[in-house]
UniProtKB/TrEMBL annotation:
<dbReference type="InterPro" id="IPR001926">
    <property type="entry name" value="TrpB-like_PALP"/>
</dbReference>
<dbReference type="GO" id="GO:0004794">
    <property type="term" value="F:threonine deaminase activity"/>
</dbReference>
<comment type="similarity">
    <text>Belongs to the serine/threonine dehydratase family.</text>
</comment>
<dbReference type="InterPro" id="IPR045865">
    <property type="entry name" value="ACT-like_dom_sf"/>
</dbReference>
<dbReference type="InterPro" id="IPR002912">
    <property type="entry name" value="ACT_dom"/>
</dbReference>
<dbReference type="InterPro" id="IPR005789">
    <property type="entry name" value="Thr_deHydtase_catblc"/>
</dbReference>
<feature type="domain" description="ACT">
    <location>
        <begin position="326"/>
        <end position="404"/>
    </location>
</feature>
<protein>
    <submittedName>
        <fullName>Threonine dehydratase</fullName>
        <ecNumber>4.3.1.19</ecNumber>
    </submittedName>
</protein>
<dbReference type="InterPro" id="IPR050147">
    <property type="entry name" value="Ser/Thr_Dehydratase"/>
</dbReference>
<keyword id="KW-0663">Pyridoxal phosphate</keyword>
<dbReference type="Pfam" id="PF00291">
    <property type="entry name" value="PALP"/>
</dbReference>
<dbReference type="InterPro" id="IPR044561">
    <property type="entry name" value="ACT_ThrD-II-like"/>
</dbReference>
<keyword id="KW-0456">Lyase</keyword>
<dbReference type="Pfam" id="PF13291">
    <property type="entry name" value="ACT_4"/>
</dbReference>
<dbReference type="InterPro" id="IPR036052">
    <property type="entry name" value="TrpB-like_PALP_sf"/>
</dbReference>
Amino acid sequence: MTLTLDDVRAAAARIAGHLSPTPAVPAPRLGDMVGCRLHLKLENQHATSSFKERGALNKLLSLDDAARAAGVIAMSAGNHAQAVACHATRLGIRSTIVMPAFTPFTKVERTENLGATVELHGETLSEAAAFAHDLARRDGLVFVHPYDDPLVAAGQGTAALELLDEVPDLDMLVVPIGGGGLIAGMATAAKALRPDLRILGVQCSLYPAVRQALAGQPITCGGATVAEGIAVKAPGALTLPIIRDLVEDVVEVEEARLEEAVYLLATVQKQVAEGAGAAALAAVLNDPERFRGRKVGIVLSGGNIDSRILAQVLMRGLVYEGRIVRLRISITDAPGTLARVTRLLGEAGANIVEVHHQRLFHNVPVKMAEVDVVLETRNQTHVEALIRRMREAGYPTNLMVEVG
């Protein structure tokens, strides 16, 4: 079975009044970085901060009375779980979500708070999925697949209708790919309305299952990624042929580029994005020549990033920009020397965050000491000026690669 524009339009009519459209906003500062006119489709603005609500809601609204009375079940450790739980509860449908046993407690709690019954089973997503299918057969529940379902994919495609309604003259559309439901639905609608529109898919380099499948290569995926929302090891049987027919190319992005995209969305655009949600921007940053001079729409697919991960990404971004650095300064181990060093740094406009005074390590001569100083600075040029000032004052100073 495949999808049509009519399927997506039917989904849009079905979810209208249940789900508010999300905005498509220009991002001129981000666009200027790569020389294109950039527009962001803010799917992180849904109640559960993810596009997954579109497909889950369309599926739930399509159920007949008997299916609603029986209840639904889904397998997910992330955004799909919350989407199904949220809208099933709102519609008065009993929902069960199967999550792998390793799922962080915060995700379990959030899903339960949305009204679902959570079952923890298995060490992998595959084991959780098999258990969910077993429960569905045993209890007569409707299985709501996260991507390989025509009603789910059609629901995700409604994002393209909204985007092209707001920005009809796009040259390119860039969409993250996990299992392929979002890009299959959006490409179906977008290519029907705009056959000349170029559509690109993006995968993280650790989980390039769709790109490998399209190339006829063995699928080899694995590893820890900041883009866990698209860390899918098997493309959908429904979605893969649609991607093959309608998507111009599927590209990969490395972890460092994903982190950069999360950082820039937060600091430049003031938008919180999870790693998967920032993947489309990461692809644009990774290959600016491909997008230069064009009007580009990218899907910010979700904003459910762990606060600790976001904090680390922001701090690492500050380090990369030279706004937080660690200097190692050699001094004589004499009274007053450390005070003179800190005064010099302050006079040069650096804000001292941490100071570590080392006498016993790093093979330091007995009459010398080393001071590791973590500083807030303006930029790389400021850092270079600080190092030069300290050396001219007689204090050998080196920039350390990492902070902490």
